[in-house]
Write a structure and sequence with these properties.
It is elongated, with a radius of gyration of 25 Å. The two termini are 20 Å apart. It has 308 residues and is mainly α. The chain folds into 2 domains: 128 residues, no CATH class; 158 residues, AhpD-like (Up-down Bundle).
Length: 308
């Protein structure tokens, strides 16, 4: 999942989806508003037979709908990647139809080559954008099949993900609902990776769930936090601003009045948004130990090697 501000590769994926969305929306609008002008503007279309304004507008509506979905997805591509896939699905199937027609001789290779940039290019660009995000694991878990999601969870927390498997088999789509919740627990935009992790680990240690603390620490490694610093956090041996963030997380988890003064200190040093991000992380990360404890699967920190 994305933590921190998007980098240039994230922005590239976003721009690709945005560009395709604008193109297919305008292309669809052209078909809807001026169907006969569209028909005469494309020589390969003229070769298929006489125009049908109703049919052209039908296809134009499909293009426009795909464009609207892609534009919606591009605004927050990491969370809305499934919308991007949906918006490109009709475009991709349309491209498959063109490949089929040239393969069986319905259309000529010359016509296929002429149409290919406009027909195959848009869905391929969206798939490239999604590939960039998936390879870098920068997508929200909602929409990922349970078997693939659980495989990643098992790799991050070997032997400690039993509660996730239990929820995956529970009725009522509880796992799908949890996947929508998970991104908020490590939301970060302006806070540093180190400061956010300190608050998360501090709050988790209060819950006395060793495996949960190690899982949070593994997330910190993926976010680029130094391993030695992470192990210092797990041991509670930090100082300076990191200690303030750590103590803030612990104060929130223990519902201590110290959260007020610690939050004020963080806000004075880093701003209101950073305080908000640390508060959200510390408050929500406690849900995982709570679920484990409720299912009788928690292990105390004293029983778990707290290091990565």
């Amino acid at each position: 999942m994305l933590t921190g501000k998007p980098d240039w590769l994230d922005r590239l994926a976003q721009v690709l989806v945005l560009a395709v969305g604008l193109f297919v929306l305008l292309f669809g609008a052209f078909m809807i508003l001026w169907p006969l002008d569209w028909y005469t503007a494309l020589p390969t279309v003229v070769a298929t037979g006489p125009p049908n304004k109703h049919f052209i507008r039908d296809i134009g509506i499909a293009y426009a709908a795909c464009g609207i979905i892609l534009l919606y997805a591009s605004a927050n591509i990491h969370m809305r990647w499934l919308a991007a896939f949906t918006g490109s699905l009709w475009l991709a199937l349309h491209g498959v139809l063109h490949i089929y027609e040239v393969s069986v001789g319905i259309c000529t290779p010359e016509a296929f080559v002429a149409d290919a940039p406009g027909v195959l290019g848009p869905p391929l660009l969206v798939f490239v954008a999604l590939g960039i995000l998936f390879v870098r694991q920068r997508v929200a878990p909602a929409g990922i099949p349970d078997w693939a999601f659980l495989k990643v969870v098992d790799q991050m927390s070997p032997g400690e993900s039993e509660y996730m498997h239990e929820m995956a088999t529970a009725p009522g789509h509880v796992m799908e609902k949890l996947k929508h919740f998970m991104p908020v627990t490590n939301h970060r935009h302006q806070a540093s990776a180190e400061l956010l992790l300190a608050a998360r680990i501090g709050a988790t240690l209060v819950e006395d769930c060793g495996p949960c603390a190690v899982t949070a620490a593994q997330g910190g490694l993926m976010d680029g936090v130094d391993r030695e610093l992470i192990n210092q956090m797990l041991a509670g041996q930090v100082d300076g601003d990191i200690k303030t963030g750590f103590d803030f997380g612990q104060a929130i988890a223990s519902q201590s009045d110290h959260a007020f003064e610690l939050g004020d200190s963080l806000e004075e040093s880093f701003g209101r948004t950073v305080r908000l991000e640390l508060a959200v992380a510390a408050a929500t990360v406690r849900s995982y130990p709570g679920m484990k404890r409720g299912l009788g699967l928690t292990k105390a920190c004293s029983l778990t090697p707290l290091q990565v």
